[in-house]
Design goal:
The protein has about 425 residues and is an alpha/beta fold. It is built from 15 helices and 15 strands. Bound molecules: pyridoxal-5'-phosphate (PLP).
């Protein structure tokens, strides 16, 4: 079968067995080809095309695709034991939890491993309620914390929430980057405030420098727990090991996922202080997960953290972002009929277009030039640039050239309409 025919066949299976609407979207963006292999910052399809990955799987591939050290750790673990007995002690889990405690901000000490970002959100909200004995949860406007029912209750997008209502009760939204609105919203029933230190799916928003320090102070003064969702912003993406390090603020509970699995295994983590973890005292099984913290995932996550630290990926991210963002702004300044803003921190970058259609057009013209990007889930007019943090500089130079060519093409198309 010719590769083109094979692509049509797989596309049809997507239509028939997975999600017809999603299949149309993928085809519109020009991604209706089958991916076959990946290394570092490169993904290849079955037609022999090589793409520069500037999406990084929505923030998963921070160490690059198929890092050899992580693959070796996985193979070694596979030869010993893949999944836990659930009763005996699991060494990779213990070592991973110790490592996380070592690198995490503030007094975060204990970890619960789960399998995804949304599960981490669910567990974090539960822990806050159990610990405080209060039901109230406050979240920030424009947030994204996942799409399972509890997480969806704190994910601020009407389009995602409305068809699944009723969601969690006792949940309130306050304005992101406005500490006073948080202070006003807290009442005697409030257990916690959950916030991304830098918003990702909302459209890559970095808060003002005084926001998180003020939020910390308010949570302390009013005696509520502070949850940082570092699922996307953490592990070097924003130029520090954790985005909250940018402002030296530590939460009571922190969630991780995405890059923690090194692009090889799904894994998430909920971390908490010793005080928060007293929630488990009365009943150590108050929260549990069959697959969470399994040997394979834990070993992979541990090696991923070692790679992030040994290769100093937070610094790489910071330096590459400091180089790339001004260059993107310079290019964008010649296209102010299309682009409204370029913003971000490290290699956590958003290009905001005038509207969703222009953003979509840009995305597909860039895909035609073999650069993979995507829009942010809450704000489709923002195209995110989130490559692997190890991406070589010459690839970033190529990406800049292709972005400029794409903007030129988008303008020509818009002018012809
Ligand atoms: N939290 C944040 C900040 C995210 O960006 C995401 C996903 O994009 C999630 C939670 C949910 O993660 P997952 O898709 O693994 O459930």
């Amino acid at each position: 079968m010719k590769p083109e025919e094979y692509n049509l066949e797989i596309t049809q299976k997507y239509m028939d067995y997975i999600n017809p609407g999603l299949t149309r979207l993928v085809a519109f963006m020009g991604f209706d080809k089958v991916e076959v292999s990946a290394d570092g910052a490169i993904i290849r399809d079955n037609l022999g095309n090589e793409y520069i990955d500037c999406l990084g799987g929505f923030g998963v591939y921070s160490i690059g695709h198929r890092h050899p050290r992580v693959i070796n750790a996985l193979k070694d673990q596979l030869d010993k034991m893949a999944f836990p007995s659930k009763v005996l002690l699991n060494e990779p889990l213990a070592l991973l939890a110790e490592k996380l405690a070592d690198i995490a901000p503030g007094d975060l000490q204990y970890s619960f491993m789960c399998n995804s970002g949304t599960e981490a959100t669910e567990g974090a909200l539960k822990l806050a309620r159990i610990k405080t004995g209060k039901p109230g949860v406050i979240y920030a406007s424009n947030s994204f914390h996942g799409k399972t029912l509890g997480s969806l209750s704190v994910t601020d997008r009407e389009k995602y929430q409305k068809s699944s209502r009723p969601l969690l009760p006792d949940v309130k939204v306050v304005k992101f980057d406005d500490a006073d609105s948080l202070a006003r919203a807290i009442d005697s029933d409030t257990a916690c405030f959950i916030v991304e230190p830098i918003q990702g799916e909302g459209g890559i928003y970095v808060p003002s420098d005084d926001y998180l320090p003020k939020v910390r102070q308010i949570c302390d003064d009013k005696n509520i727990l502070l949850i940082f969702d570092e699922v996307q912003s953490g592990l070097g993406r924003a130029g520090k090991l954790f985005a909250s390090n940018l402002w030296n603020v530590a939460p009571d509970i922190m969630t991780l996922a995405k890059a923690l699995g090194g692009g090889i295994m799904p894994i998430g983590a909920i971390m908490g202080t010793r005080d928060v973890w007293s929630a488990f005292e009365e009943n150590p099984l108050i929260h549990s997960s069959t697959f969470g913290g399994n040997e394979l995932a834990a070993r992979v996550a541990l090696e991923t953290l070692n790679v992030i630290i040994d290769e100093d990926l937070p610094r790489q991210s910071r330096e590459k972002g400091e180089w790339l963002i001004p260059k993107l702004r310079e290019i964008a300044s010649h296209y102010d009929d299309l682009v409204t803003e370029v913003r971000g921190m490290g290699l956590f970058i958003g290009i905001e277009f005038k509207d969703d259609d222009i953003g979509n057009l840009f995305l597909s013209t860039l895909a035609a030039r073999n650069v993979i990007v995507a829009f942010t889930l809450n704000s489709p007019k923002v195209i995110r640039i989130e490559p692997p943090l190890m991406i070589p500089m010459e690839y970033l130079e190529t990406v800049l050239e292709r972005i400029e060519e794409s903007l030129k093409e988008v303008r020509t198309i818009m002018d012809s309409l």
